[in-house]
């Protein structure tokens, strides 16, 4: 879908885009193809797309032959998607909240996520997805470039933090690339990027310890200037936190 086609479609349906919903649509065909290719989709795959918008990426996902589950919050855009792809047998389209969809399903283990996520909710959606007992096999998502760097950060760097730990617990970063704001309509005020997350073949921690890990790291990053020992005392009894640190 070219930029001119996007503008014509929006004008024909008399749609004014809503900034609060993060409605910035990627129109660069080369980048859209690069994202779709990164998903490595086949006819055997199930893929979740959150925030399809006008469907420029959806079109490519459908063409892969995979079963596409597209979740769009804006009813106006859902109608356009139905007009464009209503005959596609491998598309399931839902008007709803992507975060709610991710939350309500516990087992995403056989699925992939390929999406241009709404930036205001992107980090929360990814953390929710990553901490599922059976998380996505692969996630290829468009985010703010600063968020991409935080997810991919190494220990000891300024970007390293809570988001890094919560995502890298389950995933390896295998690819990332930057997208200039001019590749979107309307162009956002910041640069964006795509990150490819592959689920680890072996868990770093047993799944039953993930809630404890999340609790500890959230506490640790809540007050960075305090010693970890003091932070643990705020959450556990002396006997409990001594067990945690092996004392």
Describe the structure.
- By secondary structure, the chain is of the alpha/beta class.
- It has two domains: 202 residues, Rossmann fold (3-Layer(aba) Sandwich); 42 residues, no CATH class.
- It is 40% helix and 20% strand.
- The strands form two sheets. It has a seven-stranded mixed beta sheet with strand order 4-3-2-5-6-9-7. A two-stranded antiparallel ribbon has the order 1-8.
- Helix 6 links the parallel strand 5 and strand 6.
- Helix 2 packs across helix 3 and helix 5 runs parallel beside helix 6.
- The longest helix is centred in the last third of the chain and has 13 residues.
- The model has no long low-confidence stretch (mean pLDDT 90).
Can you tag this structure with a few keywords?
single chain, Rossmann fold, alpha/beta, 247 residues, 11 helices, 9 strands
